[in-house]
Amino acid sequence: MSAVQEILAIAPVVLIGLLATAVMVVDALIRQSARLSFWLSVVGLLGVAAAAVWTLPASGTVLSGMLSSGGMAALFDIVFAAAGVLTLLAARPYLEREGREYDEFYALLLFALAGAIILAHAAHLVVFFLGIELLSVSFYVLAGYFRTQPRSVEAALKYFLLGAFATGFLLYGIAMVYGSTGAMGYESVAARLQRGSPLPMLLGIGVGLLLVGIGFKIAVVPFHQWVPDVYQGAPTVVTAFMSTVGKAAVVVALVPIFEALRPALDWKLQSAVAVLSAATILLGNVLAVVQRNLKRMLAYSSIAHAGYLLMGVVAQSERGWAGMLFYAVAYVFMQMGAFVVVALVEQENEHRLELNDYAGLSRQHPALAAMMAVFLFSLTGLPPFAGFFGKYFLFTAAIEAGYTWLAVVAVLGTMVSAYFYLGVLVAMYFREPAAPIAIQTGTAKATLWLSTAAVLLLGLFPMTLLGLLQRFL
Q1: Is 301 inside a domain boundary?
Q2: How many domains does the chain have?
Q3: Which domain holds residue 433?
Q4: Does residue 131 belong to any structural domain of this protein?
Q5: Is 183 within a domain?
Q6: Comparing C-alpha atoms, which of 66, 76, 82, 58 is closest to residue 117?
C-alpha cells in the first residue's frame, strides 16, 4: 500500500486533525469568530463522518501497524462525529445564555474529538497513549471553561492533578508490557505472548498498571473520586460531552488491547476485574440514590455504568466485547440527552439543578419531559429502549463466562438505579410546579430529537448495530 493509500485509509484521523487546527487558526486570526468557528466545526464534523462511511469497508492496519483503518474504528468515527455535532448544537444556546461563548471552546472540543478518534484507530500502545492524553488535556481545560466560577476552576484543577497521577500508572504499565514482550504494537504483543512471556511477573504488573490508568479514565471504583466534583463543576454541556465521548473512546480502545493481552490474562486477573465491576455498579448506584442535585446524581450513575461496561472485559468473549461496544454507543446518546435536558432547565450560575426544580415540568414543557423520560428509562435498562439491550448482552455474556454472581449484582444495581431515575419522573409528572419554568431550546432542540431517535432506533433494531460490531471484531 502506497503512502497516499495509507493516508486515505485513515482519512477521518487526518480530517479531524486538520479541522481542529483550522478552527484554532481562525480563533487566533479573527476576532469574535465564535459563529464562524461553530459552523466550520459542524460542517467539518459532517465531513469526518462522511469520510468514516467511505473507509468503513476497508479494515486493516497502516503506517507500520501503528493505526487501524476502517471497520470498528470507522464505525466509532461516525459515532464520535455525531456526538460532536450534537454537543455543538446543544452548546451554542447554553453558552450564549451564560454569556460565555468564548472562541476557543470549539477548538478545544475538536481536539478532544481528535483524541477520541485516535483512540479508536490505535493499534500501538504509543498511539493509544497519545490519543488518551490529547483527549484528557482538552477535557482538563474544558472542565475549567467557566474561568470566573470557583467551582469550575476547582473541577479543572482536581481533574488535572488526579489525571496526571493516573497518567503515571499508564506509562509505567506500557513500559512494563514493552519490557516483558519487547513490542508495543498490538499484533506483535499478541504474537509474542502466544509463545509465552519470559517475564510473566513483570507482564502481570504491567497489565495491572494499565488497568489502573484506564480505570481512572472511565471512573471505575476505587478510581472514581474525581467524577462527582468534576461533573458538577464543569459547564453542563461539557459534562455531557466528557461523560459520553470520553468513556466511549476509552472503551473502544480497550477491546484490541485486551484482545492482544488475552494470553496473559489468567483467571485471577479476570476475577479481580469482576470484583471491580461489581463494586463500581453497587457503589455508583447506591451513592446516586442520596443525591438531590441532578448533575451529581448523573455523575454517580455514570460510575455505575462504567461497572456495567467492565462486564465485557470480564467475559473475554466476542459476545462480551460486542455487548460492551453496543452499550457504549447507546450510552453516548442516552447520557448526552439527559445532560442536555439538565442544561436547558438550568439557570445562570448553577440555579435550578435540584430534583425539586423539575416538579411539574411535564405540564409546562411536555415534549421536554417526555424526552427526559425516554433517556431515564433507557439508562435504567427498561425495554424497548437501547439501554435494555446493552445490559442484556452484557449480562448474558457474563453468565456464559461463568460469572453468574456478577450478573446478579448487576441486576440488583439496576433495581437500585430504577429508584433514583424514576424519582425524576415522579417529580416531572406527579408534583405541582413551584414556579414557571422558562426554557429556550434553540439549536439544542435538534440534539434532543436526534438523541431520542437514536435511543429508540437502537432499542427497536438492536441486532443491526450488534451485527456490525460482531462483523468487525
Answers
A1: yes
A2: 1
A3: 266-473
A4: no
A5: no
A6: 76
For residue 124, tell me if it sits in a domain.
Answer: no
pLDDT digits (tens, 9 = 90+) for 108-132: 999 999 999 999 999 999 999 999 9
Enumerate residues 6+ apart whose C-beta is below 8 A from 387. Answer: 327, 330, 331, 334, 377, 378, 379, 380, 381, 455, 459
Q: What is the tens place of the pLDDT at every residue in 305-322?
A: 999 999 999 988 889 999
At 197, the pLDDT band (50, 70, 90 cuts) reads low
Per-residue pLDDT reduced to its tens digit, 386-402:
999 999 999 999 999 98
State yes or no: pLDDT of 362 exceeds 70. yes
For residue 203, the one-letter residue type is L
Report the length, in residues, of the chain. Answer: 473
